[in-house]
């Protein structure tokens, strides 16, 4: 599901709300999570999962085309861990 599909589904479920308001709500939701991750904070949605930031250390990598050693800089990556309720629903328990 992509963002526009999510907005369309929420519009169908909530016909009393304007689509532009739903778009604003969804955008605010995602930007709030993004801003928290930028600050290095953890975002937990009970039953769904938790977003956090992991640091990947600098390392020596390989160029797959030439096999040449390449320095890969340290970086931060987003990480998502599923919540217990979501995991159980996915596994049919």
Account of the 3D structure:
- This protein folds into 2 domains: 1-40; 42-93, HU Protein, Chain A.
- The strands form 2 sheets. The chain has a 3-stranded antiparallel β-sheet. It has a two-stranded antiparallel ribbon with strand order 3-4.
- Helix 1 packs across helix 2.
- A hairpin with a 3-residue loop joins strand 1 and strand 2 (49-56).
- It has 93 residues and is an alpha+beta fold.
- The mean pLDDT is 95.
- It starts with a helix and ends with a helix.
- It has helices at 3-13, 19-38, 84-90, and strands at residues 43-45, 49-56, 59-62, 69-72, 75-82.
- It has 3 helices and 5 strands, in the order ααβββββα.
Notable characteristics:
93 residues; alpha+beta; HU Protein, Chain A; 2 domains; two-stranded antiparallel sheet; 5 strands; 41% helix
- First and last CA, distance: 24 Å
CATH-defined fold name of the largest domain: HU Protein, Chain A
Give the ordered list of helices and strands: HHEEEEEH
Shape: elongated
- Tally of distinct domains: 2
Main sheet attributes: strand count, strand direction, barrel closure: 3 strands, antiparallel
Report the β-strand fraction as a percent range.
Answer: 25-35%
């Amino acid at each position: 599901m992509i963002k526009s599909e999510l907005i369309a589904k929420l519009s169908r479920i909530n016909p009393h709300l304007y689509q532009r308001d739903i778009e604003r709500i969804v955008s605010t939701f995602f930007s709030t999570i993004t801003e928290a991750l930028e600050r290095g904070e953890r975002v937990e949605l009970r039953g769904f999962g938790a977003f956090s930031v992991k640091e990947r250390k600098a390392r020596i990598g390989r160029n797959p085309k030439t096999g040449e050693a390449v320095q890969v800089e340290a970086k931060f990556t987003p990480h998502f861990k599923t919540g217990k309720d979501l995991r159980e629903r996915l596994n049919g328990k």
